[in-house]
TrEMBL record:
SUPFAM superfamilies: SGNH hydrolase. Keywords: Hydrolase, Lipid degradation, Lipid metabolism, Signal. It holds the Pfam family Lipase_GDSL. It comes from Hibiscus sabdariffa. PANTHER family: ANTHER-SPECIFIC PROLINE-RICH PROTEIN APG (PTHR45648:SF106), GDSL LIPASE/ACYLHYDROLASE FAMILY PROTEIN (AFU_ORTHOLOGUE AFUA_4G14700) (PTHR45648). InterPro entries: GDSL, GDSL_Est/Lipase, SGNH_hydro_sf, SGNH_plant_lipase-like. Residues 1-27 form the signal peptide. This is GDSL esterase/lipase At5g55050-like.
Amino acid sequence: MYGKQQLSFSIFLMVCVLSWRREFSEAKMVPAVYVLGDSLVDVGNNNHLPVSVAKANFPHNGLDFPTQKPTGRFCNGKNAADLLAEKLGLPSSPPYLSLSKNKNASFQNGVSFASGGAGIFNGTDRVFGQAIPLSNQVNNYLAVHKTLVQQMGSSAAEEHFSKSLFAIVIGSNDLFDYFGSSDLRKKNTPQQFVDLMANTLKGQLKRLYEFGARKFFFAGIGAIGCIPAERVKNKTQECNEERNFWTVKYNDGLKAMLMGLKSELQGISYSYFDTYTIMQNVIRNPSTYGFNEIKAACCGLGDLRAKVPCLPVSEYCSNRNDHVFWDLYHPTEATARIFVDTLFDGSSPVCVPMNVRQLVSA
Protein backbone atom coordinates (compact mmCIF):
# COMPACT_ATOMS: atom_id res chain seq x y z
CA MET A 1 0.00 0.00 0.00
CA TYR A 2 2.84 2.37 0.94
CA GLY A 3 4.60 1.68 -2.39
CA LYS A 4 1.46 2.64 -4.34
CA GLN A 5 1.07 5.86 -2.34
CA GLN A 6 4.72 6.70 -2.92
CA LEU A 7 4.36 6.05 -6.67
CA SER A 8 1.19 8.18 -6.82
CA PHE A 9 2.93 11.02 -5.01
CA SER A 10 5.94 10.79 -7.34
CA ILE A 11 3.67 10.97 -10.40
CA PHE A 12 1.79 13.93 -8.87
CA LEU A 13 5.08 15.70 -8.18
CA MET A 14 6.33 15.08 -11.71
CA VAL A 15 3.08 16.45 -13.20
CA CYS A 16 3.40 19.57 -11.01
CA VAL A 17 7.00 20.16 -12.10
CA LEU A 18 6.16 19.66 -15.79
CA SER A 19 3.17 21.98 -15.45
CA TRP A 20 5.30 24.63 -13.69
CA ARG A 21 7.98 24.34 -16.38
CA ARG A 22 5.40 24.69 -19.12
CA GLU A 23 3.87 27.75 -17.43
CA PHE A 24 7.31 29.31 -17.01
CA SER A 25 8.27 28.71 -20.64
CA GLU A 26 4.90 30.04 -21.81
CA ALA A 27 5.32 33.11 -19.62
CA LYS A 28 8.76 33.73 -21.16
CA MET A 29 7.97 36.30 -23.85
CA VAL A 30 11.48 36.56 -25.34
CA PRO A 31 14.48 34.21 -25.22
CA ALA A 32 16.69 36.80 -23.51
CA VAL A 33 17.15 40.44 -22.50
CA TYR A 34 20.48 42.12 -23.22
CA VAL A 35 20.80 45.34 -21.22
CA LEU A 36 23.13 48.21 -22.08
CA GLY A 37 23.19 51.43 -20.11
CA ASP A 38 24.11 53.33 -16.97
CA SER A 39 23.39 53.23 -13.22
CA LEU A 40 19.61 53.22 -13.77
CA VAL A 41 19.96 49.60 -14.96
CA ASP A 42 23.36 48.47 -13.58
CA VAL A 43 22.81 45.22 -11.64
CA GLY A 44 26.37 44.93 -10.32
CA ASN A 45 28.93 45.28 -13.12
CA ASN A 46 30.66 48.15 -11.32
CA ASN A 47 31.26 45.88 -8.31
CA HIS A 48 33.94 44.23 -10.47
CA LEU A 49 35.73 47.46 -11.48
CA PRO A 50 38.67 47.82 -9.08
CA VAL A 51 39.08 51.62 -8.98
CA SER A 52 35.54 52.80 -9.73
CA VAL A 53 33.91 55.08 -7.18
CA ALA A 54 30.53 54.68 -8.93
CA LYS A 55 29.48 51.73 -6.81
CA ALA A 56 26.41 50.80 -4.79
CA ASN A 57 27.60 47.56 -3.16
CA PHE A 58 27.15 48.89 0.38
CA PRO A 59 24.24 49.82 2.69
CA HIS A 60 21.69 51.31 2.53
CA ASN A 61 21.30 50.24 -1.09
CA GLY A 62 19.38 46.99 -1.45
CA LEU A 63 17.40 47.62 1.74
CA ASP A 64 14.20 46.37 0.06
CA PHE A 65 15.82 43.92 -2.38
CA PRO A 66 14.59 40.31 -1.85
CA THR A 67 17.92 39.40 -0.15
CA GLN A 68 17.86 42.72 1.80
CA LYS A 69 21.52 43.11 0.85
CA PRO A 70 23.31 45.62 -1.41
CA THR A 71 23.97 44.10 -4.82
CA GLY A 72 25.44 47.00 -6.77
CA ARG A 73 22.03 48.35 -7.78
CA PHE A 74 21.67 52.09 -7.20
CA CYS A 75 18.28 51.59 -5.57
CA ASN A 76 16.50 50.56 -2.40
CA GLY A 77 15.23 47.44 -4.17
CA LYS A 78 14.80 46.21 -7.72
CA ASN A 79 15.67 48.57 -10.55
CA ALA A 80 14.07 49.00 -13.97
CA ALA A 81 16.14 46.17 -15.53
CA ASP A 82 14.88 43.70 -12.88
CA LEU A 83 11.28 44.80 -13.27
CA LEU A 84 11.43 44.58 -17.09
CA ALA A 85 12.83 41.03 -16.89
CA GLU A 86 10.02 40.14 -14.47
CA LYS A 87 7.41 41.38 -16.96
CA LEU A 88 8.99 39.25 -19.68
CA GLY A 89 8.96 36.10 -17.54
CA LEU A 90 12.74 35.98 -17.23
CA PRO A 91 15.23 36.12 -14.36
CA SER A 92 17.18 39.39 -14.13
CA SER A 93 20.01 39.47 -16.66
CA PRO A 94 23.20 38.91 -14.62
CA PRO A 95 26.12 41.37 -14.77
CA TYR A 96 28.50 40.46 -17.58
CA LEU A 97 31.62 40.95 -15.44
CA SER A 98 30.37 38.33 -12.95
CA LEU A 99 30.22 35.76 -15.79
CA SER A 100 33.05 36.72 -18.13
CA LYS A 101 35.71 34.63 -16.36
CA ASN A 102 33.43 31.62 -15.86
CA LYS A 103 33.89 29.15 -18.72
CA ASN A 104 30.56 27.44 -17.94
CA ALA A 105 28.54 30.67 -17.71
CA SER A 106 25.26 30.72 -19.59
CA PHE A 107 24.36 33.82 -21.57
CA GLN A 108 21.17 32.35 -23.03
CA ASN A 109 18.66 34.18 -20.79
CA GLY A 110 20.44 37.47 -21.32
CA VAL A 111 23.25 39.52 -19.83
CA SER A 112 23.55 43.03 -18.43
CA PHE A 113 26.43 45.12 -19.72
CA ALA A 114 25.21 48.30 -17.95
CA SER A 115 27.61 50.29 -15.81
CA GLY A 116 27.02 53.11 -13.32
CA GLY A 117 28.55 56.36 -14.60
CA ALA A 118 28.60 55.16 -18.22
CA GLY A 119 27.74 57.40 -21.13
CA ILE A 120 27.35 57.30 -24.88
CA PHE A 121 30.77 58.96 -25.14
CA ASN A 122 33.93 57.23 -23.96
CA GLY A 123 35.11 60.12 -21.76
CA THR A 124 31.90 60.56 -19.79
CA ASP A 125 32.93 58.25 -16.94
CA ARG A 126 36.13 60.15 -16.06
CA VAL A 127 34.38 61.95 -13.17
CA PHE A 128 33.72 58.59 -11.48
CA GLY A 129 37.16 57.12 -12.08
CA GLN A 130 35.97 54.10 -13.98
CA ALA A 131 32.87 52.89 -15.78
CA ILE A 132 32.21 50.85 -18.92
CA PRO A 133 31.25 53.28 -21.71
CA LEU A 134 28.72 52.22 -24.33
CA SER A 135 31.33 51.32 -26.96
CA ASN A 136 32.95 48.85 -24.52
CA GLN A 137 29.55 47.48 -23.51
CA VAL A 138 28.92 46.72 -27.19
CA ASN A 139 32.39 45.08 -27.37
CA ASN A 140 31.36 42.85 -24.44
CA TYR A 141 28.15 41.95 -26.27
CA LEU A 142 30.22 40.92 -29.32
CA ALA A 143 32.16 38.53 -27.05
CA VAL A 144 28.85 37.04 -25.83
CA HIS A 145 27.63 36.79 -29.43
CA LYS A 146 30.76 34.83 -30.38
CA THR A 147 30.33 32.43 -27.43
CA LEU A 148 26.66 31.74 -28.22
CA VAL A 149 27.39 31.14 -31.92
CA GLN A 150 29.96 28.54 -30.81
CA GLN A 151 27.51 26.95 -28.35
CA MET A 152 24.30 27.02 -30.42
CA GLY A 153 25.49 27.08 -34.01
CA SER A 154 25.13 30.14 -36.22
CA SER A 155 21.52 29.68 -37.42
CA ALA A 156 20.12 28.91 -33.91
CA ALA A 157 22.10 31.84 -32.48
CA GLU A 158 20.83 34.16 -35.23
CA GLU A 159 17.24 33.21 -34.39
CA HIS A 160 17.93 33.62 -30.65
CA PHE A 161 19.32 37.14 -31.06
CA SER A 162 16.65 38.27 -33.53
CA LYS A 163 13.89 37.38 -31.02
CA SER A 164 15.71 38.72 -27.93
CA LEU A 165 15.17 42.20 -26.53
CA PHE A 166 17.99 44.75 -26.44
CA ALA A 167 17.18 47.33 -23.75
CA ILE A 168 19.17 50.58 -23.88
CA VAL A 169 19.05 53.15 -21.07
CA ILE A 170 21.82 55.71 -21.40
CA GLY A 171 22.58 59.39 -22.01
CA SER A 172 21.94 61.30 -18.80
CA ASN A 173 25.61 61.08 -17.69
CA ASP A 174 26.68 62.66 -20.99
CA LEU A 175 24.42 65.65 -20.28
CA PHE A 176 25.63 65.94 -16.67
CA ASP A 177 29.17 65.86 -18.03
CA TYR A 178 28.47 68.56 -20.61
CA PHE A 179 26.94 71.00 -18.14
CA GLY A 180 29.68 70.30 -15.60
CA SER A 181 32.57 70.87 -18.01
CA SER A 182 33.64 74.25 -19.36
CA ASP A 183 35.91 72.43 -21.88
CA LEU A 184 32.98 70.57 -23.43
CA ARG A 185 30.88 73.75 -23.54
CA LYS A 186 33.70 75.56 -25.38
CA LYS A 187 33.90 72.78 -27.99
CA ASN A 188 30.16 72.42 -28.71
CA THR A 189 26.95 74.39 -28.35
CA PRO A 190 24.28 72.42 -26.43
CA GLN A 191 22.50 71.66 -29.73
CA GLN A 192 25.70 70.36 -31.32
CA PHE A 193 26.35 68.21 -28.27
CA VAL A 194 22.91 66.55 -28.18
CA ASP A 195 23.10 65.97 -31.95
CA LEU A 196 26.48 64.33 -31.46
CA MET A 197 25.05 62.14 -28.69
CA ALA A 198 22.29 60.82 -30.98
CA ASN A 199 24.70 60.29 -33.86
CA THR A 200 27.26 58.46 -31.70
CA LEU A 201 24.51 56.23 -30.31
CA LYS A 202 23.42 55.46 -33.87
CA GLY A 203 26.91 54.12 -34.65
CA GLN A 204 26.75 51.71 -31.70
CA LEU A 205 23.24 50.54 -32.66
CA LYS A 206 24.53 49.66 -36.12
CA ARG A 207 27.21 47.50 -34.51
CA LEU A 208 24.56 45.68 -32.45
CA TYR A 209 22.45 45.22 -35.59
CA GLU A 210 25.42 43.80 -37.47
CA PHE A 211 25.67 41.12 -34.77
CA GLY A 212 22.06 40.01 -34.69
CA ALA A 213 20.11 42.58 -32.65
CA ARG A 214 16.68 43.31 -34.17
CA LYS A 215 14.32 44.26 -31.31
CA PHE A 216 15.30 47.38 -29.39
CA PHE A 217 13.83 49.15 -26.39
CA PHE A 218 15.00 52.73 -25.74
CA ALA A 219 14.30 54.83 -22.68
CA GLY A 220 14.46 58.55 -23.33
CA ILE A 221 16.26 60.58 -20.67
CA GLY A 222 14.10 61.62 -17.71
CA ALA A 223 13.65 65.12 -16.26
CA ILE A 224 17.22 65.28 -14.93
CA GLY A 225 16.77 68.93 -13.92
CA CYS A 226 14.33 67.73 -11.21
CA ILE A 227 16.54 65.21 -9.41
CA PRO A 228 17.53 66.11 -5.82
CA ALA A 229 21.16 66.71 -6.91
CA GLU A 230 19.96 69.54 -9.19
CA ARG A 231 17.22 70.96 -6.94
CA VAL A 232 19.63 71.33 -4.01
CA LYS A 233 21.76 73.77 -6.06
CA ASN A 234 18.74 76.09 -6.36
CA LYS A 235 17.71 78.27 -3.38
CA THR A 236 14.05 77.73 -4.25
CA GLN A 237 14.61 73.96 -4.67
CA GLU A 238 12.89 74.14 -8.06
CA CYS A 239 13.94 72.10 -11.12
CA ASN A 240 16.85 73.22 -13.30
CA GLU A 241 14.95 74.18 -16.45
CA GLU A 242 18.07 74.46 -18.63
CA ARG A 243 18.90 70.79 -17.95
CA ASN A 244 15.32 69.81 -18.71
CA PHE A 245 15.19 71.88 -21.93
CA TRP A 246 18.24 70.12 -23.41
CA THR A 247 17.00 66.74 -22.22
CA VAL A 248 13.87 67.26 -24.31
CA LYS A 249 16.01 68.41 -27.27
CA TYR A 250 18.13 65.25 -27.02
CA ASN A 251 15.04 63.02 -26.73
CA ASP A 252 13.60 64.65 -29.87
CA GLY A 253 16.87 63.98 -31.68
CA LEU A 254 16.89 60.37 -30.46
CA LYS A 255 13.34 59.78 -31.75
CA ALA A 256 14.21 61.29 -35.14
CA MET A 257 17.37 59.15 -35.34
CA LEU A 258 15.40 55.97 -34.54
CA MET A 259 12.82 56.70 -37.23
CA GLY A 260 15.63 57.17 -39.75
CA LEU A 261 17.37 53.99 -38.63
CA LYS A 262 14.21 51.94 -39.11
CA SER A 263 14.12 52.88 -42.80
CA GLU A 264 17.88 52.31 -43.10
CA LEU A 265 18.21 48.87 -41.46
CA GLN A 266 16.02 46.04 -42.66
CA GLY A 267 14.09 44.04 -40.09
CA ILE A 268 14.55 46.20 -37.00
CA SER A 269 11.71 47.16 -34.70
CA TYR A 270 11.81 49.31 -31.60
CA SER A 271 9.88 50.86 -28.76
CA TYR A 272 10.78 54.31 -27.46
CA PHE A 273 9.60 55.26 -23.97
CA ASP A 274 9.13 58.93 -23.05
CA THR A 275 10.61 58.77 -19.54
CA TYR A 276 10.62 62.57 -19.35
CA THR A 277 6.84 62.98 -19.67
CA ILE A 278 6.01 60.22 -17.19
CA MET A 279 8.53 61.61 -14.69
CA GLN A 280 7.01 65.09 -15.02
CA ASN A 281 3.51 63.61 -14.58
CA VAL A 282 4.65 61.94 -11.35
CA ILE A 283 6.28 65.15 -10.06
CA ARG A 284 3.26 67.33 -10.91
CA ASN A 285 0.61 64.88 -9.61
CA PRO A 286 2.45 62.83 -6.96
CA SER A 287 -0.63 61.78 -4.97
CA THR A 288 -2.14 60.19 -8.10
CA TYR A 289 0.82 57.82 -8.14
CA GLY A 290 0.99 57.28 -4.37
CA PHE A 291 3.88 59.66 -3.58
CA ASN A 292 4.10 62.58 -1.18
CA GLU A 293 7.83 63.46 -1.45
CA ILE A 294 9.02 64.63 -4.87
CA LYS A 295 12.03 66.81 -4.01
CA ALA A 296 14.11 65.11 -1.32
CA ALA A 297 16.05 61.87 -1.69
CA CYS A 298 15.14 59.04 0.65
CA CYS A 299 18.79 58.24 1.44
CA GLY A 300 21.51 60.87 1.98
CA LEU A 301 22.42 63.79 4.23
CA GLY A 302 21.92 67.56 4.23
CA ASP A 303 19.31 69.66 2.42
CA LEU A 304 16.91 67.40 0.49
CA ARG A 305 19.22 64.57 1.67
CA ALA A 306 21.20 65.55 -1.44
CA LYS A 307 24.35 67.17 -0.05
CA VAL A 308 25.88 63.77 0.76
CA PRO A 309 25.10 60.63 -1.31
CA CYS A 310 23.55 57.44 0.03
CA LEU A 311 26.43 56.05 2.13
CA PRO A 312 26.44 53.75 5.18
CA VAL A 313 26.62 56.90 7.39
CA SER A 314 23.58 58.47 5.67
CA GLU A 315 20.04 58.60 6.97
CA TYR A 316 17.21 56.98 5.05
CA CYS A 317 13.44 57.45 5.05
CA SER A 318 11.18 54.90 6.74
CA ASN A 319 8.69 54.70 3.86
CA ARG A 320 10.45 54.25 0.54
CA ASN A 321 7.15 53.85 -1.32
CA ASP A 322 6.18 57.51 -0.86
CA HIS A 323 9.48 58.92 -2.22
CA VAL A 324 10.08 59.42 -5.94
CA PHE A 325 13.87 59.41 -5.44
CA TRP A 326 15.99 56.90 -3.57
CA ASP A 327 19.21 58.95 -3.58
CA LEU A 328 20.33 62.23 -5.12
CA TYR A 329 20.24 60.76 -8.67
CA HIS A 330 18.19 57.58 -8.80
CA PRO A 331 14.50 56.64 -8.46
CA THR A 332 13.08 54.35 -5.80
CA GLU A 333 11.81 50.90 -6.76
CA ALA A 334 8.27 52.31 -6.50
CA THR A 335 9.06 54.92 -9.19
CA ALA A 336 10.89 52.39 -11.38
CA ARG A 337 7.81 50.15 -11.20
CA ILE A 338 5.57 52.95 -12.53
CA PHE A 339 8.01 53.52 -15.40
CA VAL A 340 8.18 49.81 -16.29
CA ASP A 341 4.40 49.27 -16.05
CA THR A 342 3.97 52.20 -18.47
CA LEU A 343 6.68 51.29 -20.97
CA PHE A 344 5.31 47.75 -21.07
CA ASP A 345 1.62 48.52 -21.63
CA GLY A 346 1.44 52.27 -22.29
CA SER A 347 0.14 53.91 -25.44
CA SER A 348 1.23 56.67 -27.82
CA PRO A 349 2.65 59.31 -27.47
CA VAL A 350 4.44 57.94 -24.36
CA CYS A 351 5.38 54.68 -26.13
CA VAL A 352 6.18 55.02 -29.84
CA PRO A 353 5.67 53.47 -32.29
CA MET A 354 4.56 50.70 -29.88
CA ASN A 355 4.98 49.55 -26.30
CA VAL A 356 7.27 46.72 -25.18
CA ARG A 357 4.49 44.12 -25.03
CA GLN A 358 3.66 44.87 -28.67
CA LEU A 359 7.34 44.90 -29.61
CA VAL A 360 8.10 41.45 -28.23
CA SER A 361 4.88 40.00 -29.67
CA ALA A 362 5.59 41.36 -33.16
